[in-house]
Design goal:
The structure is a single chain. By secondary structure, the protein is an alpha+beta fold. About 25% of the residues lie in helices and about 30% in strands. Strands 3-4-5-7-6 form a 5-stranded antiparallel sheet. A 3-stranded antiparallel sheet has the order 1-2-8.
Length: about 170
């Protein structure tokens, strides 16, 4: 009986580890691990580009230190094993100016390395990725903590590679 319960417990843990949830807002669709956290709340006082989503392995909330594109308060909330991605969309005149100079969305987004520092407020492990897709202009911020397990990194890569954007 103990062996059976142990096996059922292990199966339950494996099933919950692989379960996913679905995000579908603003013409943006993706699936993510059910244990991760997703919000559409802005991470700073910036209004354009508009925040579309944030997904991370740790819940985060905006702080007074987070202003415009720089998010040091958010970064301080993330443990070394966290991953985080947030997507902002350029709207109106900003969209019209941004679209011609942005590269198309790559088939596979390159995640940040430990040496990347382009994501304002995050230090090492952050990358800012501008791209256009479906006639829309986006800025993707991605952070991978220096101790992030490879499974988390793999799941983040899959989420971003399979992200679907519909015309706006």
């Amino acid at each position: 009986m103990v062996v059976v319960l142990g096996c059922l417990s292990a199966l339950g843990a494996a099933a919950s580890a692989s379960s996913t949830s679905r995000f579908d807002r603003h013409g943006i669709l993706f699936t993510y691990p059910s244990t991760w956290f997703v919000t559409t709340r802005p991470l700073s006082n910036g209004v354009n580009p508009a925040y579309r989503f944030t997904v991370s392995t740790t819940p985060v909330r905006r702080t007074p230190r987070d202003s415009g594109p720089c998010l040091p308060g958010i970064a301080a909330q993330l443990p070394k094993n966290a991953v985080l991605a947030y997507l902002r969309e350029a709207l109106g005149a900003d969209r019209a100016r941004s679209l011609p100079r942005m590269p198309p969305r790559p088939r596979h987004l390159r995640l940040p390395t430990r040496a990347d520092t382009s994501l304002c407020g995050f230090g090492r492990g952050g990358r800012w990725i501008p791209f256009k897709d479906a006639g829309r202009a986006f800025y993707l911020g991605v952070y991978v903590g220096r101790a992030a397990p490879m499974e988390r990194v793999r799941r983040l890569r899959e989420l971003l590679d399979w992200l679907r954007i519909e015309p706006g």
